[in-house]
Amino acid sequence: MFQTTHHQPTDDKTTMENVNRIVAEGIAAVEAAQDFNALEQIKARYLGKTGGLTGLLKTLGQMSPEERKTIGAHINECKNQFQTAFNNKRDALNEAKLQAQLAAEALDITLPGRAQENGGLHPVTLTLQRVVELFHGMGFEVADGPEIEDDFHNFQALNIPANHPARAMQDTFYVENGDVLRTHTSPIQIRYMLDKKEPPIRIIAPGRVYRVDSDATHSPMFHQAEGLWVEEGVTFADLKVVFTDFIRRFFERDDLQVRFRPSFFPFTEPSAEIDIMGENGKWLEVGGCGMVHPNVLKNVNIDPEKYTGFAFGIGLDRFAMLRYNVNDLRLFFDNDLSVLSQFSRNKRKTWKEAISDLIKQLPTEFTLDSLYKYKQDLSELFLRNEHIEEKIRQTVQILEKNGDIERLDRGYYRKIRV
C-alpha cells in the first residue's frame, strides 16, 4: 500500500527570524572581511555545501507545500542579499588593491615603450593538448559531445538510478525540460557507442563539465578527460597498463608509483580510484576507473557477453595544478595575466631582460658602432627605433641603478655609459 507523507508543522515566524539572523551575520562578516581569502571563507561558511543558508534550504523538504513556498522564497531572497553584499565587497577589495598598486608604482615617461608581447595558451589548454597527444600515440581518437545533456545520456544510460545523489539539485545544474549541464564527459562515450554500433572502440573524451561546487580545489565549471576502450578480450590488466604508461609519460617520471584502490561507480564494475605517490611520500588521488558495467553496454546495444571494456576519468584542471605546482584552482580562471603569462610556451623576455642578455654577449673592448651587428634583435625590441645606442645608454643606467647588472665586468658596458 502507498503511504501518505505527513509534514510536521513549523513555526514560520521562528524560521523567518532564523533566516534573517543568519543572513545578517553573514553580511556583517562580509563587510568586515579584510582580504580575499577571508571573503571566500565567509562565502563557503554561508553558501557552501554545509553553509548556514544551504542548510536551511535542505530543511524545506520537511515542510508543508505552503510553508515551503513562503520560506523557500524568503531564503532565496536572503541568499541574493548575501551574494550582492559579497560582490560589492569583492569589488571594493579589488579597487583598494588597484589603488594601492597605482600608488606604489612610479611611472617614468622617459622609458622606452614596450614591444607587443606574444600571447600564449591557457595552462588547462596546454594540459589538454598534452593528454590528447599522449593518447593519440596509443591509438585513441578524440570524441566530442554537447554540454547540455538529457537525462538518458547523462544518467540513465550510465546505470545511474533515479535516487542517486548525483541527481540532486545541490550537485547538478538543471535547465529547461529536465535537461542538465553535463556533470561528466561520460555522455560522450554513450553517444559515440550508439553511433559507432560495433567495437572496437578506443576514444578519449575531453571537455567542460559542471557541478554545484566551489572552493580552492573545485569549480562550478571544470574540465575532464575520459577514456574508453571496448573490444573483445579487454581486461583490467589492460586498463592498468594503459593508464600507468600514460601517467608516467605525462609527469615524465618512469619510476612514478601508481596504485589502483577499490572503489564504486555505478557505470563500472569492478571500479577503482587511481593514486600516485607524491613528492611528500603521500598518495594523491588523480582519477577514477573501472571495467564498463554490463548494463551500460546493454544500454548502447553492445553485447556484454562478447565485448568488454574499460573506462577512466581524470580532472584536467587538477592535472594542470599538479603539472604547474598551483595550489588554488581559481587562479586559472581569474584572468590575471600576471599569472597566466607564466605558463606561455612562447613567453618573451622583457626589454630589460633582453638588453641585459645582449650586454653579456658583448666583447670586453668595443665601440658603439659594433653594437649595430645586434640591430636586428634590438630593432624588434625597440620597434625599429633608429637611435639604438641612446636606448642602450638609458637602459644600462636603469639596469645599474636597479642592481640588475652589478655582477657583470664593468668593461662590458663602460663605453656606453653616459
UniProtKB/TrEMBL annotation:
Keywords: Aminoacyl-tRNA synthetase, ATP-binding, Cytoplasm, Ligase, Magnesium, Metal-binding, Nucleotide-binding, Protein biosynthesis
Catalytic activity of the protein: tRNA(Phe) + L-phenylalanine + ATP = L-phenylalanyl-tRNA(Phe) + AMP + diphosphate + H(+)
Subcellular compartments: Cytoplasm
Protein family (similarity comment): Belongs to the class-II aminoacyl-tRNA synthetase family. Phe-tRNA synthetase alpha subunit type 1 subfamily.
Residues that bind Mg(2+): E269
Gene Ontology molecular function: ATP binding; magnesium ion binding; phenylalanine-tRNA ligase activity; tRNA binding
Gene3D superfamilies, per database record: Bira Bifunctional Protein, Domain 2
CDD domains: PheRS_alpha_core
Enzyme class, UniProt record, top EC level: ligase
Major location (coarse): cytoplasm
Cofactor note: Binds 2 magnesium ions per tetramer.
Start and end residues of each Aminoacyl-transfer RNA synthetases class-II family profile domain: 131-363
One Gene Ontology CC term in the entry: cytoplasm
SUPFAM superfamilies for this protein: Class II aaRS and biotin synthetases, tRNA-binding arm
Subunit and interaction comment: Tetramer of two alpha and two beta subunits.
Single GO biological process annotation from the record: phenylalanyl-tRNA aminoacylation
Descriptive protein name: Phenylalanine--tRNA ligase alpha subunit
Superkingdom classification of source: Bacteria
EC numbers for this chain: 6.1.1.20
PANTHER family per UniProt: PHENYLALANINE--TRNA LIGASE, MITOCHONDRIAL (PTHR11538:SF41), PHENYLALANYL-TRNA SYNTHETASE (PTHR11538)
Pfam families: DpnI_C, Phe_tRNA-synt_N, tRNA-synt_2d
Cofactor annotation: Mg(2+)
